[in-house]
Design brief:
By secondary structure, this protein is α/β, with parallel strands linked by helices. The chain has 12 helices and 14 strands.
Length: 327
């Protein structure tokens, strides 16, 4: 389904963020004025205040598309990434972290302006994560950062919906999609967050229907995108808008649509859900790894579910085992 002769299997374009994981209870989240279970944007001062109030369990490279690329690399896919970081400590951490996975990451560093982005991920005892994100240098990503040769050399270009917020980054995504299609490549998009969809519903619809081949969305996101009454209605609406729609439903598994086809795949059982951070990112990785190898769509969804199950069984959004064992 994709053109051959590519140097990379998947190129990810997204917010380059360092994740800072910490435990918290519901009371702490409420006192901080955070909305539980979703991503909350913050300015530098607010982020500094929260960072000083938590005890980090781990600092690691993060960001939705970067998590997907990291999982793809663990599967053995050849990957590249485009994202903006500053020339500071967290920027070096992000760069070294993703390159250590064998991922090509050559986006020029910012040498002035905002610091590298960070996301403080608060994990409550019910395994839900509440994220406070300071975007920092992420908002400086622009069309000039999109290396056209890397786009042309990638079988699938994977776009992160969160990047639709800054206008310059939006231009970068549209440019990448145009270059990819001109080279006969596929373009995938993750909608990222229902609140992100709410902010940009009309322009997201245009993006999906005119620039995207493979759409990844969870139940809340696709319902929000089309303002549907329920998941079934949203599923029927998105059918035909893209070549492939992979719609996840947490414990209910996922539904994959392609033309007149519809495939329902169960979620993989997990003994204990520890932290659901990055489950959707890992699902996309498993799906795309199998997709690029010509596997049937149900097999793509099953590998996505297996990757998501690995991620939610421990803290953090990056795999703790070689995902090649799952494949």
């Amino acid at each position: 389904m994709t053109a051959g002769g590519a140097r990379f299997d998947v190129l990810g374009i997204g917010n380059a963020i360092v994740d800072i994981l910490a435990n918290a209870d519901d009371g702490f989240i409420k006192r901080r004025g955070l909305r539980k279970g979703i991503m909350n944007l913050a300015d530098a001062a607010t982020s500094d205040s929260l960072a000083a109030a938590v005890t980090p369990l781990r600092e690691c490279g993060g960001g939705s598309a970067a998590n997907t690329i990291a999982a793809l690399a663990s599967f053995g896919s050849r990957c590249a990434y485009i994202g903006k970081v500053r020339d500071d400590r967290l920027g070096a951490l992000f760069r070294d972290d993703i390159r250590a996975l064998g991922v090509n990451f050559d986006t020029p560093l910012s040498t002035a302006g905002a610091a590298t982005a960070r996301c403080i991920v608060l994990v409550t005892p019910d395994a839900r994560r509440t994220m406070q994100t300071y975007l920092g240098a992420c908002v400086e990503l622009n069309a000039h950062d999109v290396d056209e040769s890397t786009v042309r050399d990638s079988r699938v270009v994977y776009l992160e919906g969160y990047l639709w917020d800054p206008p310059a980054a939006r231009e970068a995504l549209v440019k990448a999609a145009a270059v990819a299609h001109a080279a006969g490549r596929e373009v995938a998009l993750t909608l990222s967050d229902p609140f992100c969809v709410n902010r940009h519903r009309e322009s997201f619809r245009d993006l999906v229907e005119n620039h995207i081949d493979i759409l990844f969305a969870n139940e809340l996101e696709v319902v929000s995108l089309y303002q549907s009454a329920n998941f079934t209605e949203a599923m029927q609406t998105v059918r035909g808008k893209v070549k492939v729609a992979a719609l996840t439903r947490s414990a209910q598994g996922s539904v994959v649509l392609c033309g007149g086809e519809s495939h329902t795949v169960n979620a993989c059982p997990v003994e204990r859900v520890v932290d659901d951070t990055g489950a959707g990112d890992a699902y996309a990785a498993g799906f795309l790894h199998a997709f690029n190898r010509g596997q049937p769509l149900p097999a793509c969804a099953r590998l996505g579910s297996a990757a998501a199950a690995e991620i939610i069984s421990h803290y953090g959004a990056r795999p703790e085992i070689s995902l090649a064992e799952l494949a």
